Amino acid sequence: MSSAEAEWDERFRRGDHASVEIDPLIELSKNYWSLLPAGRPNGRKPRALDVASGAGRHAVYLAAQGFDVTAVDISSEALSQVAQRAVAQNISIETRQADLETADADLGESLYNLVAVFFYLHRPLFSALRRAIRPQGIIVYKTYSVDQLRYPGRPRHRIHMLEHNELLREFSDFRVLRYEEEWDGKGTASLIARKP
Ligand SMILES: C[S@@+](CC[C@H](N)C(=O)[O-])C[C@H]1O[C@@H](n2cnc3c(N)ncnc32)[C@H](O)[C@@H]1O
């Protein structure tokens, strides 16, 4: 087990990041779901990927909204919490344990109608995220920005914070449906954008 995995497992065992409250951005993304590519053949549900899902607050939400959801995270403890929540709500979520910070990290090609990333940033993963989305699929991304440096607490290192306009630059060939930078107690940037 890597030290990152052990550290995250320990955090989830302690009950950190255990909130079931969804981020308002995932709810807002609903306004754009009519733009998603049609469902899959044989009437199967559209697919969503929750990247670095943690205990699965958004994975559970998306599954309850009718997506076939895969939650991927380095922490097997977090993923077992996802599985428990799914059972409790009588929904099904596929869980995948993976270190997304290895050189060969892969999320597949054109698989997902919607990809969600909340409070996780590993810049070398951007190309795998872009690749994983189906044409006309949507990315919903929100995490800390450098405006977080106005406030105490984590994160402190710029490697974990978006620069101003960085998501806009990274997804400049996507159709930007919504972009916002906020600093209201925490500094964040968020994007909803559609792949061509
Ligand atoms: C701040 S939490 C956010 C969890 C969730 N997205 C949410 O918003 O509730 C960061 C997540 O990134 C995961 N993570 C950290 N390093 C990772 C890695 N190398 N590969 C995959 N997941 C990782 C952690 O296990 C944790 O679940």
Features:
binds S-adenosylmethionine; Rossmann fold; seven-stranded mixed beta sheet; 27% strand; 7 strands; alpha/beta; globular; 6 helices; 196 residues
Structure description:
There is one protein chain. The protein has 196 residues and is an alpha/beta fold. The chain has one domain (3-194): 3-Layer(aba) Sandwich (Rossmann fold). Helices cover 26% and strands 27% of the residues. It is built from 6 helices and 7 strands, in the order ααβαβαββαβαββ. It has a 7-stranded mixed beta sheet with strand order 3-2-1-4-5-7-6. β1 (47-51), α3 (57-64) and β2 (68-73) form a beta-alpha-beta unit. The longest helix is centred in the middle third of the chain and has 13 residues, at 76-88. The chain is globular. The model has no long low-confidence stretch (mean pLDDT 95). The structure holds S-adenosylmethionine. S-adenosylmethionine binds next to α1.
